[in-house]
């Protein structure tokens, strides 16, 4: 009988934590390659992924699971070379990229690095809510993202979506459904890629190949089940607890500082794109 007493608590703890990945999970536990063939390589026993871009292709990967809330993060090092014209990305999305699905609203929350000659480095955030995109806010980074790994995060609970760069919140998308602003219930999944959108012009392929690196493939996310959506707002997930409903005063200060000093482009300043969320997302 004794052994039951010992085993029971262990099983119990494991069941509660199952949605909270170990930060250092290997790639294939939570992700799979979506495109790019040999341009994606997994190494270091699954703990690091390289996405390579040259004139023939980029590459991308996706989470295996769909989520209803979570705190998503990745360590990323963007290509060291002059990668003008390229985007290295990490984002949450409701639909397969470029493939609208009948009846599925497009939600997307992006972190995108625009390749530059390094002067300055650019991080672009975008949001698609209820099929409405074109909501970029862009920042100059205060460090060199090509020289080492930094942590990029997207928090998502019923109250807010927050973009973080190394613990500094840079943008907030609040649940403003009462103002008619879209807010996702899920399912959303995680994707990452390196590619070259035509709107950024032609990359200088002679500078390539360009290599982005990703680490830490654990996912803290609530598995989406359409019949049990409420489960994903449960406070048993740490990211749904009160302290994550809004930024604390210190984070609020960091957010204001980042926006004041580093944001150089804001769709809210454009009267054609300005939405009701612009007043309240500060
Ligand atoms: C947004 O907030 C309202 C309460 O203000 C809540 O009822 C609703 O479930 C939230 N929406 C999502 C998608 O979490």
Automatic annotation (TrEMBL):
* Record localization: Secreted, Cell wall; Secreted, Extracellular space, Apoplast
Q: Which domain of life is it from?
A: Eukaryota
* Keyword vocabulary terms for this entry: Apoplast, Cell wall, Cell wall biogenesis/degradation, Disulfide bond, Glycosidase, Hydrolase, Secreted, Signal, Transferase
Q: Where is the GH16 domain?
A: 1-214
Active site located where?
108, 112
Which region is the signal sequence?
1-21
- Could you say which EC number(s) this protein's record lists? 2.4.1.207
Q: How is it modified after translation?
A: Contains at least one intrachain disulfide bond essential for its enzymatic activity.
Q: Per UniProt, what is one GO molecular function of this protein? A: xyloglucan:xyloglucosyl transferase activity
Q: What class of enzyme is it?
A: transferase
- Could you name the Gene Ontology cellular component terms for this entry? apoplast
Q: Check the record and name the InterPro entries matching this protein.
A: Beta-glucanase-like, Beta-glucanase/XTH, ConA-like_dom_sf, XET_C, XTH
Predominant location = secreted
Q: Name one GO biological process term.
A: xyloglucan metabolic process
Question: PANTHER family this protein is in?
Answer: XYLOGLUCAN ENDOTRANSGLUCOSYLASE/HYDROLASE PROTEIN 8-RELATED
Q: Which family does it belong to?
A: Belongs to the glycosyl hydrolase 16 family.
This molecule's function is given as: Catalyzes xyloglucan endohydrolysis (XEH) and/or endotransglycosylation (XET). Cleaves and religates xyloglucan polymers, an essential constituent of the primary cell wall, and thereby participates in cell wall construction of growing tissues.
- Protein's recorded name: Xyloglucan endotransglucosylase/hydrolase
Q: What's the source species for this entry?
A: Coffea arabica
Coding gene?
LOC113714720
């Amino acid at each position: 009988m004794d052994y039951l007493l010992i085993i029971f608590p262990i099983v119990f703890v494991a069941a509660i934590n199952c949605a909270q990945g170990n930060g250092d999970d290997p790639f294939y536990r939570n992700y799979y390659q979506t495109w790019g063939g040999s341009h994606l390589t997994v190494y270091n026993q699954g703990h690091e992924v390289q996405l390579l871009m040259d004139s023939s292709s980029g590459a991308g990967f996706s989470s295996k699971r769909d989520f209803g809330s979570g705190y998503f993060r990745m360590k990323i090092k963007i290509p060291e070379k002059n990668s003008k014209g390229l985007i290295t990305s990490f984002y949450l999305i409701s639909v397969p990229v470029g493939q609208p699905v009948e009846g599925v609203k497009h939600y997307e929350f992006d972190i995108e690095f625009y390749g530059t000659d390094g002067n300055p480095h650019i991080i672009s955030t975008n949001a698609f809510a209820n099929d409405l995109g074109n909501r970029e806010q862009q920042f100059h980074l205060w460090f060199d993202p090509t020289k080492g790994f930094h942590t990029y995060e997207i928090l998502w609970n019923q109250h807010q979506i927050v973009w973080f760069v190394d613990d500094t919140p840079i943008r907030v998308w609040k649940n403003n459904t009462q103002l008619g602003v879209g807010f996702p219930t899920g399912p959303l999944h995680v994707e990452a890629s390196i590619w070259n959108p035509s709107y950024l012009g032609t990359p200088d392929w002679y500078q390539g190949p360009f290599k982005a690196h990703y680490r830490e493939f654990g996912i803290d996310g609530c598995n989406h089940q359409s019949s049990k959506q409420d489960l994903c707002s449960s406070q048993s997930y740490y990211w749904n607890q009160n302290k994550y409903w809004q930024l604390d005063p210190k984070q609020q200060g960091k957010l204001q500082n980042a926006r004041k000093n580093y944001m150089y482009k804001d769709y809210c300043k454009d009267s054609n794109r300005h939405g009701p969320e612009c007043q309240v997302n500060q």
